Amino acid sequence: MIAIIDYDAGNIKSVERAIQLLGEEVVITKDAEAILSADGVILPGVGAFGDAMGKLQAYGLVEVIRKCVEKQIPFLGICLGLQLMFESSEEAPGVEGLHILDGKILRIPTGQGLKIPHIGWNSLSFPNKGRLLEGIEEDSFVYFVHSYYLKADKNEIVAAATQYGAYIHAAVEKGNVFACQFHPEKSSQVGLKILQNFLNITKNEKQAKKEN
């Protein structure tokens, strides 16, 4: 069972449909027990950083997310979900993020004829490929919708990067924590492969716990 955290953010249903397409049972929920008993947890989202953190606080989900990470439940942030996992965002000065990982969210620089928000397909490079991107070829294209981007403090957690007015840390991986700025659920077969990799990780972790 995969739990998708429901905090009134956009794009949750499309993630649900993608997981169902891959044949996995999935639930959209705010319930702490359901989230903490899931094999894997996804924090998707499209929207504003400050509003999203306010909703997570209001629904008591900040501590639930921290417990997921402490319990080593495979955890995947998508788009806004990635941004919330870091310290702060220029979109919402003074608002603290979840700070599961070290780094800040910055606004994509204007100029160079680039449109902001960045909407469209960009290719990926792989500084530290990791498990989430297993089987994905270098320069594969994925779909982005964002005006802000991640600059992680530690390069070793950066699994994928792209270029759009700045060197964008497009995916990160640390232990059982994963996140991507792009939308795998909207990235055709490449995106489905990435989501399948996450499901495979959840199954492997579940099996390992049984054996222990």
Question: What does this entry look like structurally?
Answer:
- The protein has 212 residues and is α/β, with parallel strands linked by helices.
- It has a single domain, classed as Rossmann fold (3-Layer(aba) Sandwich).
- It has 6 helices and 12 strands.
- It has helices at residues 12-21, 32-36, 49-58, 61-70, 80-84, 188-211; strands at 2-5, 26-29, 40-43, 75-78, 88-89, 103-107, 118-123, 141-146, 148-152, 158-163, 167-174, 177-180.
- The strands form 3 sheets. A 7-stranded mixed beta sheet has the order 2-1-3-4-12-11-10, sandwiched between helices.
- Strand 1 (2-5), helix 1 (12-21) and strand 2 (26-29) form a beta-alpha-beta unit.
Please tag this protein with its features.
212 residues, Rossmann fold, seven-stranded mixed beta sheet, 6 helices, 30% helix, 27% strand, globular
The domain count comes to: 1
Quaternary assembly: single chain
- The averaged pLDDT comes out at 96
Strand count, sense and closure of the main sheet? 7 strands, mixed
CATH class categorisation: Alpha Beta
What is the molecular shape?
A: globular
Helix percentage range: 25-40%
Q: Which structural class should the secondary elements be placed in?
A: alpha/beta
DSSP strand count? 12
Strand order of the largest sheet: 2-1-3-4-12-11-10
The number of helices is: 6
Output the radius of gyration.
16 Å
Pattern of helices and strands: EHEHEHHEHEEEEEEEEH
The H-level CATH homologous superfamily, spelled out, is Class I glutamine amidotransferase (GATase) domain
| CATH-derived architecture | 3-Layer(aba) Sandwich
What is the fold-level CATH name, i.e. the topology? Rossmann fold
Determine the strand fraction and express it as a percent band.
Answer: 25-35%
